[in-house]
């Protein structure tokens, strides 16, 4: 079940839908409940979105605490 790359709302929605169709979601839902399975699907889709768009955000601090 490969996820699509991208940060748009439609891509994230499609990735969540992809999880809801798969067997992993069904096993998680059966074992831990629907709420936990939904949270896991959203977390995985958002993680994919973060990994696919490496731009913007706060700059990292150096070892002295400056930007």
Short recap of the structure:
The protein is mostly helical and 67 residues long.
Task: Describe the protein's architecture and organization.
With 67 residues, the chain is an all-alpha fold. It has a domain at 9-52. The protein has helices spanning 9-21, 23-32, 34-52. Helix 2 packs across helix 3 (34-52).
Write the layout of secondary structure elements.
Elements: H1 9-21, H2 23-32, H3 34-52
List keywords for this structure.
67 residues; mainly alpha; 3 helices
How is the main sheet built?
none
Question: How much helix is in the residues?
Answer: 55-70%
The best one-word shape is: elongated
Helix/sheet category: mainly alpha
Helix count equals 3
- Specify Rg, calculated over alpha carbons: 16 Å
Strand content: under 5%
């Amino acid at each position: 079940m490969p996820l699509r790359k991208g940060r748009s709302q439609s891509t994230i929605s499609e990735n969540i839908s992809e999880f809801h169709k798969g067997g992993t979601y069904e096993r998680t839902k059966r074992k831990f409940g629907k709420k936990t399975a939904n949270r896991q699907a959203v977390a995985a889709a958002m993680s994919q979105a973060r990994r696919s768009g490496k731009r913007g955000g706060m700059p990292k601090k150096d070892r002295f605490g400056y930007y």
